[in-house]
Amino acid sequence: MYLSPQEAGMWEARLPTEKIIREPIAALLVEEMQQFIRFSEEMRFKIEFCLQEGLQNAVVHGNLEVTMPLLSLEDFEHAQNIIEHRLTIPLFNQRQVQVVCRLFSESLELNIKDEGKGFSIAEKQKETLFGRGFMLMTELSDGFSYCQKTTTLQILFKKLS
Predict the structure, then answer these.
(1) pTM of the entire structure?
(2) What is the helix (H) or strand (E) element at residue 142, kind and residue range?
(3) Tell me, what CATH number does 50's domain have?
(4) Domain interval for residue 115
(5) 36-49: pLDDT as tens digits
């Protein structure tokens, strides 16, 4: 199990960067959540998708510090090589991502915190190619916010049924 209870209605997971890259962590976390929280199949999809996007952003852009200029649509293999190389460097590969799930009556809040330097969400929203995760999270969740100072992404789902 990845999620450990912290208090009533709150669970936390601390995940190594490489595990998020190599395993279907979002699916596994959502499966664990369903042991504690009831939500529809449609909500499962939305939660898992947003969690996956948030985890990928936290790992690639946060913990591994792979910035947009290093990534190009034409050269995903090169981008993957950069990611694989960074996973061999202790400065990057020892970082973790913290996921905190909070249940409030009929709503769920997910907080994803990485150990990177943070970014400006206003700048990311200007990017059209790689900013798709934020656009999709906006569509699938009931709200999300990012705090650059704490490098924490917060995603809210108001109705779970």
Answers:
(1) 0.89
(2) none
(3) 3.30.565.10
(4) 4-157
(5) 888 999 999 999 99
